[in-house]
Amino acid sequence: MTKVTMTVNGKAVSAEVEGRTLLSTFLREGLGLTGTHVGCDTSQCGACVVHVDGKAVKSCTTFAADVAGSTVKTIEGMNNPDGSLSVVQQAFQDHHGLQCGFCTPGMVMSSAALLAENPKPTEAEIRHYLEGNICRCTGYHNIVKAVLAASGQDAAALAAE
Q1: Three-state secondary structure string covering 29-82
Q2: What does the pLDDT look like over 92-101, one tens digit per residue?
Q3: Could you give the CA distance from residue 157 to residue 148 in angstroms, rounded to a whole number?
Q4: Rounded to whole angstroms, how far apart are CA atoms 136 and 155?
Q5: Is 5 helix (H, G, I), strand (E, B) or coil?
Q6: pLDDT of residue 159
């Protein structure tokens, strides 16, 4: 067993874990943060994306011990301090960027990471960045509109597919 300590959504946490414990398992089972979804267990779908030290990371293929000492943010930590939705979350709601909701946590986390790196991405840049996230419901069009809106750009200008 290995003792891991990290900051998750602004709170210091510490636990004993097996060396093979995945970050997604640690978050979901160890901390009860079930907003981080696990879809494929192979890093293909992106439902498990969280931020580790500000970078988007697929938690289903990252060992918890490897991020010891890091700052981790999950979908549960994305809201504003007053409890309201973040800009990205609100844009997903406003532009119908979700349907079944399974991919939504990973899409929101990936989109927020993109906007932190590139505050005004083009449609092509958004689509390229989100290639590692699979959505089986939306066709991505409204997700792209949501990211454009969250960046302060005119989502209405996005041509219909």
Answers
A1: HHCCCCCCCCCCCCCCCCCCEEEECCEEEEHHHCEHHHHCCCEEECHHHCCCCC
A2: 999 999 989 9
A3: 10
A4: 22
A5: strand
A6: 60
| Bridge partner residues of 2 (DSSP) | 17
DSSP state of 28: I
How would DSSP label each residue in 98-143?
-SS-SSHHHHHHHHHHHHHH-SS--HHHHHHHGGG---SSS-SHHH
CA atoms of 48 and 74, how far apart (whole Å): 9
CB atoms < 10 A from the CB of 75, how many? 25
What is the biggest distance separating any 2 CA atoms in the chain, rounded to whole angstroms? 53
Model confidence pLDDT, tens digit, residues 7-59: 999 999 999 999 999 999 999 999 999 999 999 888 899 999 999 999 999 99
